[in-house]
Amino acid sequence: MPELRELPYCPHCGAKAFHAGDFKPWYCDECDFKLYPNIAAAAGVFVLDAEGRILLTERAHEPSKGKLGLPGGFLEAGETAETGLVREVEEEVGIQIINVNYLCSAPNRYAFGGINYNTLDLFYVANAASKSARIDPAEVAAVHWKLLDEIQPEELAFQSFHHAFQELRRYLSSSD
Ligand SMILES: [Zn+2]
């Protein structure tokens, strides 16, 4: 899987005089084009039911096919994280969410379309307005409602989830 920083040609003029690396910005000697390889923003949400169970999605595709994810995804230009989550939860599992509140953030790496992206994942907590899920089979294989203590760390799809679950545990214990 190539790193984004292995881009060999200038995306503006096509010259091979393109310097892409860990430093910012990447630049082209031929046309002075500069590219800022910023992280991508993504958001995920812990949707809770009235008994405190968490909605988990079983991922239908790589990366992390078969592992447990959260509803959410990459944010689109011009939308807030909260708006993006309402949209993603509706698309993926057909559930309306209310009381969307920010929890924490964590960096992640996400392999998509043959590129490894650096992301910043924003995590939220929300309540389910109903539990009748209508899943999108293109994205989600199944949904599971689990209590926090029923979730094993090795089931989780992404590294950033480990930090988010720790923060969720603190959030839930402080709101008892
Ligand atoms: Zn160039």
Low-confidence sequence ranges: none
Q: What is the strand tally?
A: 10
Distance between the termini: 44 Å
Rg from C-alpha positions?
Answer: 19 Å
The H/E string reads EEEEEEEHEEEH
Percent of residues in helical segments? 10-25%
The order of strands across the largest sheet is 7-4-9-8
- Shape annotation: elongated
Structural descriptors:
176 residues; alpha+beta; four-stranded mixed β-sheet; three-stranded antiparallel β-sheet; binds zinc ion
Describe this structure in words.
The protein is an alpha+beta fold and 176 residues long. It has 2 helices and 10 strands. The chain has helices at residues 81-93, 159-174; strands at residues 18-19, 26-28, 34-35, 40-48, 54-59, 68-69, 72-74, 97-112, 115-128, 140-146. The strands form 3 sheets. A 4-stranded mixed β-sheet has the order 7-4-9-8, with helices on both faces. A 3-stranded antiparallel β-sheet has the order 1-2-3, with no helix packed on it. The N and C termini lie far apart (44 Å). The mean pLDDT is 90. Zinc ion (ZN) is lined by residues 10, 12-13, 15, 28, 30-31, 33.
Write the layout of secondary structure elements.
Elements: E1 18-19, E2 26-28, E3 34-35, E4 40-48, E5 54-59, E6 68-69, E7 72-74, H1 81-93, E8 97-112, E9 115-128, E10 140-146, H2 159-174
Parallel strand pairs: 4-9
Antiparallel strand pairs: 1-2, 2-3, 4-7, 5-6, 5-10, 8-9
Bound molecules: zinc ion.
